Amino acid sequence: MSTDTYLAVDLGATSGRVILGRVGERSVTTATVARFANEPLAWPDGLHWNLPAIYRHVLDGIRRAVADAGEVRSIGIDSWGVDYGLVGPGGRLLGLPYHYRDARTRGLAAELDEAALYRRTGVPNQEINTLTQLLAEQRAGTLDPSARLGFVADLLAHLLTGRLAAERTLASTSQLFDPAGHWSDEAIAAHGLPRRLFPDPLGPGDVVGELRAGVVDELGLGAPVPVTAVAAHDTASAVAAIPAAGPGFAYVSCGTWALVGVEVDRPIRTEASRAAGFTNELGAGGAVRYQKNVTALWILSECLRAWSHGGERPDLTELLAAAAGQPGYVSLADPDAPELTRPGDMPAKVARFCRRTGQPVPVTPAQIVRCVVDSLALAFAHYADEAARLSGSPAGVVHLVGGGANNTLLCRLTADAAGRPVVAGPAEATALGNLLVQARGGRTADELAAVRALSAASARTVRYEPRADPAVAAARERFAALLGAAA
Ligand code: LRH
């Protein structure tokens, strides 16, 4: 039986990884060859991504992987959505990409005509959107008219191959892309943005190009390796690897963010959907990810950062065990309350949210962690139900993939809150989706089904059955009432 080796470069907002995958007929094995921190730079003009450092780590990872594996059939790159860098004539990078949490977009999204944009792009107004960020640059006069835009994974592919393209799943996070599969000329023109800013789209499964000669030489490779456009939005890669045999599930792709939704054949651009804040983003195999972006494990990592002493972070596993021993649903928070989406003393902000909304104020780390985990579980249940209701899709089970799948308390509470089984795992869904789209393709529904079958055959999952808890119904009602509680 033949086994082929592929390389996934998986770039997340807090860390990046380079992962080798050996893909056989019926199973896949993975090995992490490099892992590195992705630390933003707070520069005088705002919060940026350190793209040169990321590039250096990616090159080192490729070098190591090829040394380990001997031969790699292709490389795929995925990254978080919405953020971009600008590329000038001759392929020159025009500055460092901004971080979506940079303050320059504050208040800007609210000025946009959301109804018109939603009809065109299927994406509601959010401060982090590419459109909002571009408008901030346009107003500041820093948008170079000669520039073209590259999403983070596309920028890396450009640096490695010399070709700049816009991978569709990433482009669909921008609020400037029609989920039918092309840039929305109307949305671009309506905001006075230059059309040449937006490179030609290509899809999951297409080849971007081969490693350019300079990279092949620098890494001492014998021959160029192709770079394949995977479902380059990290969430799209994660959703591609959901180990489901057929339709009829809701998903939570849970890391820094949680993306909670269902897969649909066609975008849903109704007013009700817009009002509920659902996005229509593209997935592998032509699927539309109908989902809500929820601020998730970032709240916990910001708490850990606030509780660190002398560079030492408290142990999350221990804190979660302590939180599991606390009474549930005492205080709840809306994870997307504006202050909880911004950096800075997170435990104090959670406590302030509870005080302002007339709830008991959590004080100890265990109480605060319990409040956050209860709230995330209730949010996942709430939005999974909303996605099923608004799309008319059944959602018999909830697949929870990504790092959150390792959080037993969160998975158990999500099953209880949703009143449906949660199938947790794979935790490494993003890298797996990246590797498997390279191996099996990402254009058609059949290719996506083949990706999922391989993931199901290889991935470790844990099933959590919902427990009958009489407190759940009231907690869900309290949570729903909190949504949108003013900052
Ligand atoms: C998750 C994610 C999400 C959003 C956000 C910016 O990592 O990609 O889907 O696009 O980051």
Output the keywords.
487 residues; alpha/beta; Nucleotidyltransferase, domain 5; 2 domains; 7-stranded mixed sheet; 6-stranded mixed sheet; 17 helices; globular; binds 6-deoxy-beta-L-fructofuranose
What would your notes on this structure say?
Belongs to the FGGY kinase family. Residues 250-440 form the Carbohydrate kinase FGGY C-terminal domain. With 487 residues, this protein is an alpha/beta fold. It folds into two domains: 4-228, ATPase, nucleotide binding domain (Nucleotidyltransferase, domain 5), CATH 3.30.420; 234-487, ATPase, nucleotide binding domain (Nucleotidyltransferase, domain 5), CATH 3.30.420. Helix content is 37%, strand content 20%. It has 17 helices and 21 strands. The chain has helices spanning 51-69, 114-121, 130-140, 152-161, 168-171, 185-190, 213-218, 234-240, 271-275, 297-306, 316-324, 346-356, 365-391, 408-418, 429-440, 445-458, 472-482; strands at residues 4-11, 15-23, 28-37, 41-43, 46-48, 74-79, 84-87, 148-151, 166-167, 177-178, 182-183, 201-202, 207-210, 226-228, 249-254, 257-264, 279-282, 288-295, 397-401, 422-424, 462-464. The strands form six sheets. Strands 17-18-16-15-19-20-21 form a seven-stranded mixed β-sheet, sandwiched between helices. It has a six-stranded mixed β-sheet with strand order 3-2-1-6-14-13, with helices on both faces. β19 (397-401), α14 (408-418) and β20 (422-424) form a beta-alpha-beta unit. α11 (316-324) packs across α13, α13 crosses α14 (408-418) and α15 (429-440) crosses α16 (445-458). The chain is globular, with a radius of gyration of 21 Å. The termini are far apart. The chain binds 6-deoxy-beta-L-fructofuranose. 6-deoxy-beta-L-fructofuranose binds at residues 13, 80-82, 100, 128, 173, 233-235, 255-257, 259, 293.
